[in-house]
Design brief:
This protein is mainly alpha-helical. It is built from 13 helices and nine strands. About 55% of the residues lie in helices and about 5% in strands.
Length: about 375
């Protein structure tokens, strides 16, 4: 508790005024965060008018071609909007209450005389939790803002102000964290957005030629639609490909960026600010085995199924099918133990389980192994 200087009283009215002012500022900030989403919605709305009205009804003369144009367009649009809606409005994965450090333990940490004692207090509390990753100095990953032990692959989002399960990044275009709960939706959103742009661009190419040669009246919307769709497609293809790459390797954007900042640490270790950067962007450091960027990788198919589920019929449908609870993740070292207990054959070059039907067994062994050590 803060103490007031001698002779100085607590100004309740000023504190109340500051609180109201901060609340008004917070409302303005929250409102501004929706501007990118409104921009995307506006672009989609305009593209619908340009494609359906200006192109399909006013320019396309063949009835069969018009019907085919509209059928495929609306099919892609529905999947695109569905995925985008799920990405924007799915709640972030919050850390369970059992990871929150009790007030009594926090008081002990504050009263600790050195970092070693603080580390021991956190280690004692974390023994009852399924966490196997550590910080650079081999300490339990503790968030001093949320006052909790971070689960594996969880990070604090400075925009949302909370720790988020399997945080990939905070995306302003969806005004939400890309994390365990909506990562599948985000990838589908990128994929369907890319398909939408490519389809629109390809559909307008023949009419661009007619516009250029003067065989039909010039229509600004069709011309602009072509260039906008091409521009968005170029930007989306790299982003979509990058996240597919991350899924197949079972990594996140935060984990992938670690190699860059780890290099900064090696070459400029005398700069203190580099240390704090790498604390947020780094390769996972395991309690036993140290840093391993492929520690969570189970093989490309299993990595894909961990995000999209094991039912192939729902892989490309924006409904929740991801495996696990976002807190405990199977890892290569424990998967080998799981397979041994299940009576499976072991292969020295295997990077994961044969399939994710063993997901629950691997998850159990992860948690059991941490509690026993």
């Amino acid at each position: 508790m803060m103490s007031m200087p001698h002779g100085q009283s607590y100004d309740y009215h000023r504190t109340t005024f500051d609180g109201e002012r901060n609340e008004r500022c917070g409302c303005c900030v929250r409102t501004m965060k929706w501007f990118p989403v409104l921009f995307i919605a506006s672009v989609i709305g305009w593209s619908y008018y340009a494609f359906v009205i200006q192109l399909s009804f006013f320019t396309v003369t063949n009835i069969v071609q018009r019907i085919l144009f509209l059928l495929f367009y609306h099919a892609v649009l529905v999947m695109f909007l569905w995925s985008y809606y799920q990405t924007v409005f799915t709640d972030i994965g919050r850390v369970p209450s059992r990871f929150h450090v009790p007030r009594a333990e926090l008081d002990r940490i504050v009263r600790a005389t050195n970092e070693v004692e603080q580390k021991e207090i956190l280690e004692t509390f974390a023994k009852e939790l399924p966490v196997v990753t550590r910080t650079l100095n081999a300490s339990v990953r503790f968030c001093d803002k949320c006052r909790l032990i971070k689960p594996d692959r969880a990070h604090h989002c400075s925009v949302c102000g909370v720790c988020v399960l399997k945080l990939d990044h905070h995306c302003p275009w969806v005004n939400n964290c890309i994390n365990f709960t909506n990562y599948k939706y985000f990838i589908l959103f990128l994929g369907y957005a890319l398909l939408y742009c490519v389809y629109v661009a390809c559909s307008t190419i023949p009419y661009m030629e007619l516009l250029w040669t003067g065989k039909i009246d010039g229509r600004f919307h069709i011309l602009f639609l072509f260039f906008v769709s091409v521009m968005f497609a170029i930007s989306l293809v790299s982003l979509f490909g990058y996240h597919v790459y991350l899924v197949l390797l079972n990594r996140t954007t935060l984990g992938k960026l670690s190699s860059i900042f780890t290099h900064l640490i090696a070459s400029k270790s005398h700069h203190i600010h580099c240390y704090f950067i790498v604390e947020s962007f780094r390769t996972p450091i395991f309690r036993f085995g140290g840093p391993d960027k492929n520690g969570f990788s189970l093989g490309k198919l299993n990595n894909f199924q961990e995000v999209f589920g094991d039912d192939w019929r729902l892989w490309f449908v924006p409904v929740y099918t991801s495996m696990g609870d976002g807190v405990v993740y199977p890892m290569r070292c424990y998967d080998e133990d799981a397979e041994a207990l299940l009576g499976g054959e072991q292969h020295g070059n295997r990077s994961g389980t044969e399939n994710l039907h063993d997901f629950e067994a691997a998850t159990f062994l992860n948690e059991y192994g941490n509690l026993m050590n």
